[in-house]
Amino acid sequence: MTEENDEKPKDDLYSIPFFARRPIEIVRGKEAIVYDREGTPYIDCLGGHGVAIVGHSHPKIVQAICNQTKRLIVCSNALHNDVRGDLFELLASIVPLPLSPSFLSNSGTEAVECALKIARKATGRTQIIAAKKGFHGRTMGALTATWNPKYKKPFEPLIPDFHHIKFGSEEELDNITEKTAGVIFEPIQGESGVFVAPEGYLKKVKDRCFETGTLLILDEVQTGMGRTGKMFAFQHWGVIPDILCLGKGIAGGFPMGATITSEEIANKMEKLEHGSTFGGNPLASAAAIAAINVITEEKLPERAAELGTWFMERLNELGKKAVREIRGKGLMIGIDLRFKAEEYVLKALKKQVLLLTAGITTLRMLPPLIIQKEQLERVLEVLDEILEIRKA
Ligand SMILES: Cc1ncc(COP(=O)(O)O)c(C=O)c1O
User: Fold this and answer.
1) How far is the CA of 111 from the centre of ligand 1 (A)?
2) Distances (CA, A) of 97 to 90, 242, 261, 262, 309
């Protein structure tokens, strides 16, 4: 080991170097604050990439996980399980009809893989249409649906018959035809820069899917579970997808993905055509039940709507010249800059605020929905300090 390696944190030293980690090590978290080894607090607007919807170590999640570990951690999907059953029932109760039956997995990308397979099987077609600038995950199907060539090029050839159209363009919806199995979109594109679907667009997409017998898949891995001010972002536009993908905060930080569809579509799938060893295990299911109950009981979607509107108004009032545009809904906020965003993430970090980027020039905030107004006031102060026009 070299001296330089001696200084590297262990999670860099012994891992495949896929991640560009920031220079802090987080060891503990409570509500919307995370702490490093020295006990320095950081306001967490990164939120585990949008996972920490209910905040860190919410007591009800902690209790549900502790209780379930003492009862049963593992139960094969070849057997029935009470907690998994309760979660399926709860999920069916929070989605609008005709959505109801779900498949449980362990991540967002798996939720998308399942959706793509269902679309192909249920329609007997192969073509998938996705959006330019869309992001759906890193496994081969989800990666093929993803747009960014940086993520895809090294791994080609990917899966055939995937096509990308311009997000928001009604003219390009003619590309959806009787050959198209599924259209997969994020209602608000997260990873590429926080781009909200234009008013009326999703309805047009749904109508075109209906005309052509195509299934509409909405990837709400990032926008779901209250993040945008409604339980699901599609509720802003009254458009119910044929297949819904969820992940991130669905289980309060415990890994989980969910793919939800209608009975009619689910009935076109046969036994053993898809599966997962860990998906929906009792421990994850207990965490998810607790998280969903917290989201509804604490009215977190409403809270996200209120705080998000207030925050974006305040941000606009700052009138920073470095800012080109402020986009988003609820507590999914993008601050598009005239400069590369990464250096501002590092500036904020020095002031104990964690942010993330989206695309190259957008600063993104995905804080816990339980974040306090005073904490957001501090974030505004920090943004006010760091978003000064750079001297050439
Ligand atoms: C919209 C969307 N879909 C899918 C994924 C993939 O989720 P995961 O990283 O849990 O596989 C992400 C992750 O950021 C996402 O934002």
Assistant:
1) 9
2) 13, 10, 9, 8, 29
Question: Is the Cβ atom of 221 under 6 angstroms away from ligand 1?
Answer: yes
pLDDT digits (tens, 9 = 90+) for 263-275: 999 999 999 999 9
Q: 153 and 168 in contact (C-beta within 8 Å)?
A: no
For residue 50, the ligand 1 atom closest to its alpha carbon is: 14
Residue with tokens 């053993």: 272
Q: Is residue 259 within 6 Å of ligand 1 at its C-beta?
A: no
Percentage of residues of the chain with pLDDT beyond 70: 97
pTM: 0.97
Q: Is the pLDDT at 2 greater than 50, yes or no?
A: no
Which tens digits make up the pLDDT trace of 172-191? 999 999 999 999 999 999 99
The reply to whether ligand 1 has any atom less than 6 angstroms from the CB of 113 is no
Cα–Cα distance measured from residue 224 to residue 246, given in angstroms and rounded to the nearest whole number: 6
CA angle 63, 69, 75 (to 5 degrees): 130
Nearest to 53 by CA among 341, 283, 352, 256: 256
Give me the domains of the chain, ranges plus CATH numbers.
3-54+300-386 (3.90.1150.10), 59-297 (3.40.640.10)
Q: Ligand 1 within 6 A of 135 CB?
A: yes
pLDDT, tens digit (0-9, with 9 covering 90-100), for 40-68 = 999 999 999 999 999 999 999 999 999 99
| Distance from Cα 100 to the centre of ligand 1, integer Å | 22
Ligand 1 pocket, residue 191 CB under 6 Å: yes
Answer yes or no: is the C-beta of 224 below 6 A from any ligand 1 atom: no
Of 18, 135, 147, 356, the residue with max ligand 1 atoms within 8 A of its CB, to mutate for a pocket test, comes to 135
Burial class of residue 200 in the structure, from the number of CB atoms within 10 Å of its CB (0-12 exposed, 13-18 middle, 19+ buried): exposed
**Any atom of ligand 1 within 6 Å of the Cβ of 244:** no
